[in-house]
Amino acid sequence: MKKIKLAVLASGGGTNLQSIIDNIEAGRLSAEIKVVISNNSKAYALERARKHNIKDIHLSHKMFETKEEFDEKLLEIFKENQIELVVLAGYMKILSPTVIRAYKNRIINIHPALLPHFGGKGMYGIHVHEAVLKAGAKVTGVTVHLVDEVYDHGAIIAQRCVPVEDQDTPETLAARVLKTEHQLYSEAIQLFAEEKVEVKDNRVYIKK
Ligand code: GRF
C-alpha cells in the first residue's frame, strides 16, 4: 500500500509522535514521517525523531521578522518533502490562515476530550481534564479533527470514549486518555493513507 507522507508538528514530549513512529515500524500504519518540526528547540519530540533517523527541524516565529516569512518557510518545507498530511501532535502554536488554506483538509489535530465539549481557548493539557472532572462528566475521550481557522473547531474525523472513574485526578485521567490518543491517532492517519476521508459541508465521511 502507498505510504502517506507526513509532517509531524510537536512542541513537547511527543508521545503521540512516538506512537505514530511505533505503529509505522510495526507495519500497522502505511505512512512515512518525512519531517518533525518543533517551535521549541528543546522539545523531546525532536530527540525522538533523531533517534529514528527522521529529519528534525527547529522552526520558530522568533527566527523571522514577519509571520509571512515563517509561513513561507513552513510551506517550503512541506513542499520540499512532498507532504500529504500535516499532523499536529501537541503543537502549541496556531497555524496561520495562509498555511491552513494551502493545506485545506490536510491538517489534523488530536484533542484529549470529546469535542465540541472541553475545547477552545485555554483548553489544553491538564486544564482539559480538570474541566472534565469539575463538570462531573462520567465519560470523556479523544477527538481527531481537521484543522480549520477556528481553534478546536474543524470537522471531526474520529472519536473514542474513555471512562471517568470516581477516584480520578486530572493526572490519572490524562494518562488514561493519552493511551487512547496513541491508538486513535494512527487509526485516523491510516484512513487518510487509504484515501477514505471525504469532506462535504464541513462534515467528514469515511468511505467503506
Ligand atoms: C496530547 O494530550 C494531545 O491531545 C494534545 O497535546 C498532548 C501532546 O502530548 N494536543 P504528547 O506531546 O504527544 O505526549
CATH class of the largest domain: Alpha Beta
Number of strands: 9
Strand order of the largest sheet: 3-2-1-4-5-6-7
Total helices: the number is 6
Going by CATH, the architecture of the largest domain would be 3-Layer(aba) Sandwich
Oligomer: single chain
Could you give a short account of the major beta sheet? Answer: 7 strands, mixed
Descriptive account of the structure:
The chain is of the alpha/beta class and 208 residues long. Helix content is 35%, strand content 25%. It has two domains: 103 residues, Rossmann fold (3-Layer(aba) Sandwich); 99 residues, 3-Layer(aba) Sandwich (Rossmann fold). It has a seven-stranded mixed sheet, with helices on one face.
Explain the layout of strands and helices.
Blueprint: E1 4-9, H1 15-25, E2 31-38, H2 44-51, E3 55-58, H3 67-80, E4 85-88, H4 97-102, E5 107-111, H5 126-135, E6 139-146, E7 156-163, H6 170-193, E8 197-200, E9 203-206
Helix pairs in contact: 1-6, 5-6
The structure holds 5-O-phosphono-beta-D-ribofuranosylamine.
